[in-house]
Automatic annotation (TrEMBL), chains A, B:
It comes from Parafilimonas terrae. Residues 173-233 form the NrtR DNA-binding winged helix domain. Residues 35-157 form the Nudix hydrolase domain. This is 8-oxo-dGTP diphosphatase. SUPFAM superfamilies: Nudix, Winged helix' DNA-binding domain. Pfam families: NUDIX (PF00293), WHD_NrtR (PF21906).
Amino acid sequence: MSSAEAISGIKKQEDTNNALEQVQQLVETYPRVPITVDCVIFGFDNNELKVLLIRSDLEMFDGKWTLLGDFAHDDEELDDAAYRVLRERTGMRDVYLEQVKTFSKPHRHPGGRVITVAYCSLLNTEHHALNILDNELHWHTVKTACNMAFDHKEILDVCYKWLQKRMLEHPLGLNLLPEKFSLRELQNLYEAILDIKLDRRNFRKKFFSMDFLIDTGEYEDDVHHRPGRLYRFDFDKYSQNKKKWTGIEF
Amino acid sequence: MSSAEAISGIKKQEDTNNALEQVQQLVETYPRVPITVDCVIFGFDNNELKVLLIRSDLEMFDGKWTLLGDFAHDDEELDDAAYRVLRERTGMRDVYLEQVKTFSKPHRHPGGRVITVAYCSLLNTEHHALNILDNELHWHTVKTACNMAFDHKEILDVCYKWLQKRMLEHPLGLNLLPEKFSLRELQNLYEAILDIKLDRRNFRKKFFSMDFLIDTGEYEDDVHHRPGRLYRFDFDKYSQNKKKWTGIEF
DNA sequence: CCAAAAGTGTTGCGGTTACACCCATGA
DNA sequence: TCATGGGTGTAACCGCAACACTTTTGG
């Protein structure tokens, strides 16, 4: 390296430092807002879509229910914050989770401005039951959920609509079922969430033709009638064969 | 009101005040983060999808391009902030705008932690051309856009994918065309954005059968061949007749 | 009269819907 | 043996894809 190059190198380094300081100082001047994540945790039990809520620990929301949420830590990506909330509150890992929408009405939180990012997650209530730590946690039927704090009812509604739409194009709903499930259970799931009736034979044909169901060779054993076959969903195969394009339709 | 009731009323008021203070103090303790909105502004010109970018005014991003963004003001809902950015930068009002996703990687901004909410907007470049105030603003071809600051390339990619998907289920793409347009222009729009070829006759049949196109009775007049009819899109009719359900498909 | 794009119908295929009967199991 | 849901096939219909020629305009 020539000395001219060395000097130019030093100069460049100084410029970089100055530029960095400039940016840091600029960011210092920005208004700051507390950020939370709120998880809409769906479960499926008794042929009903449920949502996991906790009693508000704020005096002014005495008796009201809230979503599971928390502030974002410094240097924590919001996806990670949402996973952390799930872990801390339910003890579960590896749960399906997706960002849905950010809510920012100035007065949505009575304590001052707080922006929240809503996440939607789906888990199997049977697995989950073992891990609930906090007895102020309860599963509520989504359709009748009410008396909620903040704008959490609105967030729930948005996430429910999101789920209904997403179910049609993605098999995320299977996260609500046990690993092995009967076709009846699967159909009940779709019927309950979408709030429609489906023809049993056509539903079967549809799922079999997608060819993502693996026959376990096992049967239901807790049923008071002819037991149905149990299937697993082939998530690997799905992720290689997703549909790309379904045509213009509105 | 009895004096007991009055006392109880005062007590309740005090409780409320206390509770409010409690919540406010709690929110005070939350970590705070600067929030920005970034608008991915799409246009359509020369049969190509374009995106409006501005040169970064930060020294360390010398020569790089960024999305149009700004900090959220105090007490400003983020949707409003995004509309404000659009107004301030392009002079346009009443532009189609939708929240897409929140980006929160801890080091996405070199000046420290900044969380940004990405909005996608679509506007007609002809109308818009008149209003550009800042000559560091430029339309870039989306496919070849590069050399972007921050994580703005990633945001652009996510919004482009979002647009491709959204186009199939919602007529938002029509915001990219002039009010009156030919079917050829409409088809070019879909072909360019979705990056596919479509059969002309089937495309026409499809749109005519949806029955949202209003024949203006007018014709193109700037073409060097047989002029096509001009149509308007009936947004009112659309908003009353949206499809609800398109079947399970994944 | 030539180039360039507008405009227009039909056919075949595949997927969705609608629908009814026999079977296996537990009580 | 009865009640309950499991499991299965077929026919009509509809929407989508594939495909070519004539018409209109400007140059």
